[in-house]
Amino acid sequence: MLMRLSHDLGLYFYDLVVARFDLWAAFGVLAQFVFGARFLVQWIASEKAEKSVIPMGFWFLSIAGGIMTMIYGFARRDIVIILPQALSIFIYIRNLMLISKAKKKAGGMVASGSEVEASAG
């Protein structure tokens, strides 16, 4: 029984990795590596800061990996890949918009604070 299972698993992985592997599969694997790299970027940034942080690179890798994975889904005509990636990409872009808005608001506060100090002096 274990010999048969071992043989069947071997055939399955041969079919998966060798027989069916094409340019789109290579692109899909690359997309997953790009998408996964965001966690490496986040981990390194958190280690440097000695606290949990989400750097901008995390969001850019999320968008790039998400778009690549969605393209792969379109190429494979797989709705199970396309729909969640489309929603996720929207969320990643929205996070960048919120970060940008917060930076502009913080920049405005600094400028307002400087003007107050200058007029008081």
Automatic annotation (TrEMBL):
GO terms for molecular function: lipid-A-disaccharide synthase activity. It comes from Microvirga flocculans. InterPro entries: Lipid_A_biosynth_N. This is Lipid-A-disaccharide synthase-like uncharacterized protein. Keywords: Membrane, Transmembrane, Transmembrane helix. It comes from the Bacteria. GO terms for biological process: lipid A biosynthetic process. Residues 27-98 form the Lipid A biosynthesis N-terminal domain. One of its GO terms (cellular component) is membrane. The chain crosses the membrane at residues 23-41, 53-75, 81-99.
